[in-house]
Amino acid sequence: MISPKTKRNIYRIIPFGLMWLIFSIVYTLLERGILGHSNHYPSTGNPYNFRSAIYLTPISATLTGLFLGTLEVLYIHKWFRRLSFGKKIFFKSTIYLIIISLFLILVTAFSNYLARGTSLFSKQIWDAVWVFSLSIPFLSILVYIGAIIIVTQFYAEVSENVGLGVLRNFFTGKYLQPVEEERIFMFLDMKSSTTIAESMGHVRYFEMLKTYYADLSEPIIEYLGEVYQYVGDEIVVSWRLKNGLQNNNCIHCFLAMKAALHLQTDKYLKQYGLLPTFKAGFHMGKVTTGEIGVIKKDIIFTGDVLNTTARIQDLCNQYGVDNLVSNELIKQLQRPFPFQIKDLGETTLRGRGEKITLFSILSV
Q: CA 197, 231, 171: angle at the middle one, nearest 5?
C-alpha cells in the first residue's frame, strides 16, 4: 500500500514531468520548422534526424522533469521554505539551471570521448567542451531550459500556496458549476488563544502559530484531510465522505494531531514557554461546492453543516472536553471503534430549534 504522503508527493512530482514533456514537444517542432529538411545543425555540423528527435527529446525531457520534480518535492523545497515567493523561484531556478548545465557539459564531454577515442581527461576533449559551452546553440538551449524551470517553479509555488487539490480542481473545472456533495468537517480551534497572544505578544504568537500549523499538517495529509481554511488560530479540515469514513480517518486525524503536538512538547516549552492545545467539533452533511469570486477566485462550501460544526465546537468548553462529534457522524463511522466514546446526550445548538445528540472521543 502506498501511504497518503507518498501518493501526495507523486501527484506533486508528475506535473513537472508533464510540463517538461509539453515544452520539449514544442521545442522539437520549432527545431523542425527552423531546420526544415536539413540533416545537420548548421552551427555545429552535428547530424540532425527529426524522426529520432521527436521520440528521444520528449522522453529525455520527461525523465529530466521527473528527476527535478523529485529533487524539488523531497529535498530542495524544504531549504527555501522561509524565503519570499520571488526569492524561492530565483534561487531554486538557479540551482536547477546549474545542475542541468553541468549535466549537459558532462554529456558533451562523454560524446567527444566516444567520438575521438582519447582519454576523457585529455586537453583536446575539454577544449572542445569549452568551445561548445560558449557557443550560441548551447546558450540558447540554456535560455529555453531556464524558461521551463521558471514556469515549473512558478507552478510549484502557486500549488503550495493555494493547495494541490484546489489548483487541480481549478484546472479541471470540477467546481465551475456548483456541485452538491456530502462531506465531513472538523473545526479545530486553539484553546485560550487570545490570552496566549496577549501574554507573548502578537509577533511571537504568530511565529508560534506557524510552527503549530506546520506540526499539524502531517496528520492531515496522512489521514486524507483537506485544509479548507485557516481562520486565525482555527483550522477547518474537510473530507470527502468516503475518505473521512475510511478507517475512521477523520477521528484518527484528530488523535494523531494531539500525538504530534505531544511529541513536540520540549520544543514548544523551550521556544514559547507553553504547549498549545486545541478543541474540535465534528459533523457531516450536504454542502454545495463551487468556484466563486471575480477579483479573487476561490472554491467554497456552503451549507448548514458548516454552521452546525462551528457551534458544536463552541460547546467543548461547556462539556469540559476537547472534542465533540455529532450523532450523524458517529452512526456512519466504521465499527468496532478502536477508541472509546462517551454519549453526552441531547442538546440544542444556538440558533437551531432541533436537538442534536453529541459524543466525545475519550481514548484509543
A: 145
Instruction: Note the pLDDT of residue 44.
Output: 60
Burial grade of 81 (CB within 10 A; 0-12, 13-18, 19 or more): exposed
- For the chain, domain boundaries: 4-162, 174-363
Above 80 in pLDDT, residue 142?
yes
Contact (Cβ atoms closer than 8 angstroms) between residue 125 and residue 116? yes
| For the chain, percent of residues with pLDDT exceeding 90 | 47
Q: What angle in degrees, to the nearest 10, is found between the helix axes of 85-116 and 50-71?
A: 130
What is the mean predicted confidence (pLDDT) over 326-333?
94
Q: What is 174-363's CATH number?
A: 3.30.70.1230
Angle between helices 123-133 and 85-116 (to 10 degrees): 140
Identify the burial level of 305 via C-beta atoms within 10 angstroms of its C-beta, where 0-12 means exposed, 13-18 middle and 19 or more buried. buried
